[in-house]
Write a structure and sequence with these properties.
The structure holds 2 protein chains of 2 kinds. Chain A contains 12 helices and 14 strands. Chain A has a 7-stranded mixed beta sheet, sandwiched between helices. Chain A has a 5-stranded mixed beta sheet with strand order 9-11-10-13-14, sandwiched between helices. In chain A, strand 13, helix 10 and strand 14 form a beta-alpha-beta unit. In chain A, helix 3 packs parallel to helix 4 and helix 9 crosses helix 10. In chain B, strand 2, helix 7 and strand 3 form a beta-alpha-beta unit. In chain B, helix 1 runs parallel beside helix 12, helix 4 crosses helix 12 and helix 6 runs parallel beside helix 7. The mean pLDDT of chain B is 96. The chains are: A alpha/beta, B alpha/beta.
């Protein structure tokens, strides 16, 4: 077991992925000599060389588009989009080109590309540095979308994403980057749970809280507070936003009869709505209350001085639990 | 690695005037003294904002240190009817467009996404997405042409548009598309690229193997390279390009060769990727110092004026310190303002939700 924060765990995971497959290469803005603005790739260019850790020109569409070409040649690119809010210039390359290659080539071509992206708010920064764009990608057929929430998952899931033959949007909870955790790095990649599997973090009987990424910590905090009042929340880390691990969610909701989905992204058209609908379809007769959502509001991400009013907190989660329990 | 030739220079690093028949400077000593004052105050503004960030009063700040001449020289070439689109680093341009420094801080303190009234100052808000506004500037310039507010030869009426961006932005699709649209429609826009040598940690050579101004050739617009640390030369080439634009002769690309003497932002640590010898080299090319030497030699600037300016700078800093701390935090309910032109049921419902949370907090 070693202690790593999330960004260090991503770094170590990338290192291991590069060691185990010589076709893995990294590309992005400032990822080489600087080691990335969050230092997720620190030291990797020094150890693997400029051919495998590539500082790209400042062009997001260019990064994704050329990664597609590199993948067609047989490489396995892991690219970094520096901040969530900077991904949009690459939108066509991701949702039209990257996502559809396997389908339109009838399986002849595939693109094992991982797009790493720090996401979410709460860091007190300026516009475009606190966004949660995951719904765009989760609603795009052909893409896998996953989010890590702690060091262990950061370490293993990044390796699973790199090993995946489907394109993966890999979301990293930037405001939790420096949250530490014990990581057992001795296991074998093939033996750790797949990244498409949700995990039950806390078992409970009264209501299921489903979250991912930075708000998982918030959900766990809510569960601790609720426990003091004798309310036993079951907290699930979704991990994969597309595909959804419905069996795990259904099993939990069949037990509790209640569910609250928590994420930072806006609610309209979001992952929470998809989960709610799927639960209604699968366990309608087990539900004692409608599935509720605690999310960012349906506004653009606000100026940082009021971001705390925008971001879901434990109080809002507990209010939703209370509402659910009162049905 | 840096090319200090084949650019327009009218004031060398020793503060001596260089004669260039292409550019007859129309600036008198009073105007140059004005530029000097601008540059000194803007440097103070920048250093004070950096300090405020260090003290936790600002979330972030993007220093302009070293780019004073590029920004002041170009923005002072603009006329009041012109319009500018900038990145997040053009505090000097904002200064010239009459924006109060305390107002600039709103964005960096996180109280507003746009710091000032764009219409009032004819200056778009800080743009963070690299190069996106080059297209907006081009479209705005196309609008001026369509509205017969350019190319009419009416002095003081014809408008031109400035689009500021950096060396990194030259790689973005949006900027290259802006060149295409601007030339296709003879848009009255001046693309002002401050090549400050570094896109965060990446040197300009990662974006281009040829001088950036040379890129213009392929798009069919004139490209001019200027010493960006020479305020006189920057003013001269920008004035010419703006006049060309206003009079219907289309866009120009200016590459102002300068240097980001500080960090990319207050979150950045340039010692990780660049050599201190470079900093030393560029300190010798300081944009303020050379004008100071020139003005002192001319007898225009003396000890008294310098002390007066230092006092003015200190009072500006003091006003920023106080003004920054007094900037009001937004009302939490303002989260829901201005999402749409009119009412929206979802927004209203969520506003009520937050109202309830806030009143509950007040009770507790």
């Amino acid at each position: 077991m070693i202690e790593l924060n999330i960004v260090q765990a991503v770094n170590q995971g990338l290192r291991r992925a590069m060691e185990s497959d010589s076709k893995v290469l990294l590309m992005g803005e400032d990822i080489g000599k600087l080691g990335g603005v969050f230092r997720a790739t620190e030291g990797l260019q020094k150890d693997f060389g400029e051919d495998r850790v590539i500082d790209s020109p400042l062009a997001e569409s260019g990064i994704v588009g050329t990664a597609i070409g590199l993948a067609l040649y047989g490489y396995r690119p892991v690219i970094e989009i520096q901040f969530d809010g900077f991904v949009y210039p690459a939108f066509d390359q991701i949702v039209v080109q990257l996502a559809r290659m396997r389908y339109r080539s009838a399986g002849a071509l595939y693109l094992p590309i991982t797009i790493r992206m720090p996401f979410g708010g709460g860091i007190g920064s300026v516009e475009h540095h606190g966004e949660s764009p995951e719904a765009y990608f989760a609603s795009t057929p052909g893409l896998r979308v996953v989010a890590c929430a702690d060091s262990t998952d950061a370490y293993w899931m990044i390796q699973q994403a790199v090993a995946s033959d489907d394109p993966v949007i890999f979301l990293e909870p930037k405001r939790r980057y420096y949250q530490k955790g014990e990581v057992d790095t001795s296991a074998d990649l093939s033996t750790v749970p797949p990244m498409y599997k949700a995990r039950v973090m806390v078992e409970g009987t009264d209501c299921t809280i489903i979250s991912y990424g930075p708000t998982l910590t918030t959900a766990l905090q809510a569960a601790r507070i609720a426990a003091e009042d004798g309310v036993r929340l079951e907290v699930i880390d979704l991990r994969s936003l597309s595909p959804l691990d419905m069996p795990t969610l259904i099993e939990s909701v069949k037990k509790t009869g209640r569910a609250v989905v928590v994420h930072e992204a806006s609610s309209s058209g979001g992952v929470g709505g998809e989960i709610g609908q799927s639960l209604m379809q699968s366990c309608f007769y087990n539900l004692k209350a409608p599935v509720l959502r605690v999310t960012g509001y349906d506004t653009p991400y606000p100026p940082s001085r009021i971001e705390d009013d925008y971001l879901p907190d434990a109080d809002r989660i507990l209010d939703a639990v209370e509402k659910s329990m009162s049905y | 690695m840096y090319q200090f030739d084949s650019f327009v220079q009218l004031l060398d690093t020793n503060g001596s005037i260089i004669d260039d028949p292409r550019y007859e400077s129309t600036l008198d000593n009073a105007a140059l003294l004005g530029f000097y004052r601008d540059m000194v105050l803007v440097r103070q503004l920048d250093q004070q904002a950096t300090a405020l960030q260090r003290q936790g009063e600002l979330g972030l700040w993007a220093p302009l240190l070293g780019q004073e001449a590029a920004q002041i020289g170009s923005a002072r070439a603009m006329q009041s009817q012109d319009y500018a689109f900038t990145t997040y680093r053009e505090h000097g341009v904002a200064w010239c467009r009459g924006v109060d420094p305390v107002e600039m801080l709103r964005f960096w303190r996180g109280t507003m996404h746009q710091s000032w009234d764009a219409n009032l100052h004819r200056l778009y808000g800080y743009q963070v997405i690299i190069g996106a506004h080059a297209l907006h500037a081009t479209g705005y310039a196309m609008g001026a042409l369509l509205a017969r507010r350019a190319s009419t030869d009416e002095s003081g009426r014809d408008e031109a548009v400035m689009a500021y961006f950096g060396d990194g932005a030259m790689s973005e699709g949006d900027v290259n598309e802006a060149f295409v649209f601007a030339t296709a429609y003879h848009a009255p826009v001046v693309f002002f690229c401050q090549n400050n040598q570094w896109a965060i940690s990446e040197p300009t050579k990662r974006q281009s193997l040829v001088p950036l101004a040379q890129r213009a050739d392929g798009f069919g617009l004139p490209g001019i390279r200027v010493d960006g640390n020479d305020v006189i030369a920057v003013h001269a080439v920008t004035t010419e390009a703006l006049n060309r634009a206003r009079s219907g002769h289309g866009p120009t690309l200016i590459e102002a060769v300068t240097y980001r003497m500080g960090a990319h932002t207050t979150s950045d640590d340039p010692t990780k990727y660049r050599d201190s010898a470079d900093d030393e080299l560029w300190r010798g090319r300081d944009p303020i110092n050379r004008l100071r030497i020139y003005l002192r030699a001319q007898g225009v600037l003396n000890e008294d004026l310098e002390s007066e300016l230092a006092r003015e700078a200190e009072s500006l800093a003091e006003r920023m310190r106080q003004g920054c701390r007094e900037l009001p935090d937004p009302d939490p309910l303002s989260l829901f303002d201005h999402v749409y032109a009119g009412p929206d049921a979802r927004i209203d419902e969520q506003r009520h939700e937050v109202e309830a949370i806030l009143s509950e907090e007040r009770v507790n």
